[in-house]
Amino acid sequence: MDRRLLGKVKRKRRILDAARARIVSGGVSSLAMRGLAEDAHVSVRTLYNLFGNKDDILDALVAELLAELDLTINGLVLDDPIARCKAIVQVSIDRLIEEQVVYRPVLRAQSRRMEAFREGDERSLAAFRKALEEAVRGRVLTQHVSPETLSHQMYAAHQHNILLWAHGVLDDRQARAAAIHSCALLLMAAGTAKTRNDILSELPDMEKDLTRALASPPLAVSRPRLGLAKI
């Protein structure tokens, strides 16, 4: 990597790290461009040149998360394609919960403008589609529903649970239980007889976890203001 490109990579890293620190300490509303530039030791012009506006910086944080999730999921050694489908849901929800102080406010802010989800849609859909295609080839899912259609339904259900969690409607336990339960139901709907029976044997425990989680009110969630500070 030449020095110029290396310098650009380092500046982008400082900017994203500074943005994360600001979100942790003051929420999304603390992402004033001048303050962020000072924290990252770059000019305001550099922020716009490397990323764009404040929304673009939020999108970059999410894109970085998606890239990390891709690496994690691709690195899993899972021969069972059904287990891989479940892992996509489990790994992503666990990662969000692990660093919710960053991703909860970021996802709340992103949800105001649905166009921000387009790139994430494609990446997440591709992960689901690949796992479902493997499941069809492995004859653990039937061909009554195409992997393309089922991947959209699985992503929609997963994204819905994530947004409910981001807005504090579901707490960590509720979001995790809901995500796993909805994934299992969709897999069961398209599964072969053996797959359906395997999932049905697991479903009572999933149902208990979800029922118990939903029986308790969501834990209080700190909600930083959504508005972005003016320069």
3D architecture notes:
By secondary structure, the chain is mainly α. Helix 1 (3-26) crosses helix 2, helix 4 (54-74) runs parallel beside helix 7 and helix 7 (118-137) crosses helix 8. It has a domain at 57-215: Tetracycline Repressor, domain 2 (Orthogonal Bundle), CATH 1.10.357. The two termini are 34 Å apart. The protein has helices spanning 3-26, 33-40, 44-50, 54-74, 81-98, 100-110, 118-137, 147-166, 172-190, 193-215. The protein contains ten helices and no strands.
CATH topology of the domain at 57-215: Tetracycline Repressor, domain 2
Beta-strand percent range: under 5%
Amino- and carboxy-terminal Cα gap: 34 Å
The averaged pLDDT comes out at 88
* Sheet with most strands: none
From the spread of the alpha carbons, the general shape counts as: globular
Total count of strands? 0
The assigned CATH architecture of the domain at 57-215 is Orthogonal Bundle
Bin the helical content. Answer: over 70%
Q: Which structural class is indicated by helix and strand composition?
A: mainly alpha
Q: Output the CATH class name of the domain at 57-215.
A: Mainly Alpha
Give the radius of gyration. 20 Å
Summed up, the helix count is 10
Which stretches are low in confidence, meaning pLDDT under 50 for 5 or more residues running? 222-231
Q: List the helices and strands in order.
A: HHHHHHHHHH
